[in-house]
Amino acid sequence: MPNFFISDSKDLRVNTVTEFILLSFPCSREIQVLLFVLFFVSYILTLMGNGAIVCAVKLDHRLHTPMYILLANFSFLEICYINTTVPNMLKNFLSETKTISFTACFFQFYFFFSMGITETFLLPLMAFDRYLAICRPLHYPNIMSSHFCMNLVALCWVTAFLCYPVPIYFITQLPFCGPNTIDHFVCDPGPLLALSCIPAPGIELSCSILSSLIIFISLFFILAFYTLVLRAVLRVPSAAGRRKAFSTCGSHLAVVSLFYGSIMVMYISPTSGNAAGIQKIVTLFYSSVTPLINPLIYSLRNNDVKAALRKIHMCTKISQSK
């Protein structure tokens, strides 16, 4: 049963929702258990894969360079990203009520979007790093020092977490008087705005414009940097040099394609225009699948990361044998 309390305002009885029901993936109990096992294994593998990259960069001093500092921060971000949604989704698979409090729902909304925006800021920064390394190799050590790199990373995090407090505040001020069922596994703005007692096209349009600006501006910088990188690589006389440059950039471009391809489906047009099933599948892809795939893309295509992981594995075996 929906949980709400009754309040009086100007002689009108308004039901104010105090919790939401996240339907997640409605199906039989057996399928729910199967989905729990599947996503739990995926969750653990994601933590292990991204955690391994963070440890490799931290423990191997040869990887204490801007490129790998950015990669470690990106992997750490992916760990934080999945923790905003997957644990609650796993809980709901085994729960009968599938409820989330009003406050917890909007906290999840805030952190989920802030992490996503941080990713849209980190990806152009990684492209900028590759641009400097390939197009400005002589100036690269002076421009992109480790200290400057960490300052840019911190700026990405801080700026991203300052983007959505105001829109979320205005959404929390809308009256939610029931129903309180969200046909999703995460507190997403589209389903939330659909539950408001009064239409809020201004807020929905504002969220769509903000998301579109962030996506398009960051994607523009990525494409601009890699256009310059491509021009520089094609001028390299050595075939081996061209292969090395393309290999370095290929992993990042694969991650960019996966991430931006999915979020553009969701957030460039107003969210109410997407069917609930499509919303859930696309959100699941960029919030759970890409964090699982990203470590495989980076580690399998990067010899330095593979060497660092092998070194850590050997050191672990030696310490265990003593």
TrEMBL record:
Name of the protein: Olfactory receptor
Boundaries of every G-protein coupled receptors family 1 profile domain copy: 49-298
Note the CDD domains from the entry: 7tmA_OR11G-like
Can you name the source organism? Lynx pardinus
PANTHER family recorded: G-PROTEIN COUPLED RECEPTOR, OLFACTORY RECEPTOR
Annotated PROSITE patterns? G_PROTEIN_RECEP_F1_1 (PS00237), G_PROTEIN_RECEP_F1_2 (PS50262)
Keyword check for Phosphoprotein, yes or no.
no
Q: Which InterPro entries does the UniProt entry name for this protein?
A: GPCR_Rhodpsn (IPR000276), GPCR_Rhodpsn_7TM (IPR017452), Olfact_rcpt (IPR000725), Olfactory_GPCR1 (IPR050939)
